[in-house]
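To: structure desk
From: M.T.
Subject: fold request, one chain
Message: Could you run this one when you get a chance? Sequence is below, nothing fancy, just the single chain.
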Amino acid sequence: MDLGISGKSALVCASSKGLGRGCAEALAAEGVNLTLNARGADALEATATHIRDTYGVQVSTVACDVTTADGQARVLDAAGAIDILVTNAGGPPPGLWSDWNRDDFIAALDANMLTPIALMKASLPGMMDRGWGRVVNITSQSVKAPIPQLGLSNAARTGLTGYVAGTARQVAQKGVTINNLLPGIHATDRAVALDTGVTQAQGITMDEARAQREATIPARRYGTAAEFGAACAFLCSQHAGFIVGQNILADGGATNATI
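Reply: Done. Structure tokens follow.
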């Protein structure tokens, strides 16, 4: 299927590896020119070089912390007038409800709620003026069903979900869609971090921790960054203009819910 977005421009955050990179590569495969962001310059440049060489699209990079006002300004200035925005940031650390203080919550809100909102506020007016735009926020399955040990993520990402629910319905008439893509466990560094926590808590090996988690997923495996990226690219396509304000799970069936 031709997604109809060749020649468009996209800003993809936290895209040097993992799910962000999966989204960037899927967009590049459709002919989308990219501005990539991540904190680590070396990994970011390596990813950019791979995408340029593989897909032949234009790729610019901005190595910075996009959760800061300075980082946001640098990324937005480099990206210019974008057609597609993919927001993404690593999740806050797991723990117990009693572990976190106000500073922990502020950090989670900055990364997983306030930064996506700031990037949307900066990008939406231009998209609306041009009569077309796509925003995909990478959130988490935890907004559908809370994960007890991920309370910081539960709180921040659910706040973003509420913001998107109202905002998406205000901009849709201008040809701009905003949707959230909700990953379950994927074979990324985040999975390694979570599984490492399990090994330490239970005294088991990484293979055992992964097998234990896979057994809770109806698909009986972790997702891949490539298939997640393909879902993102479809939401950014010309064919997804009637999908507005939705929260789409990519979790292998792990969230046990009817709706």
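Reply (cont.): The CA atoms of residues 92 and 108 lie 6 Å apart. Let me know if you need anything else for the meeting.
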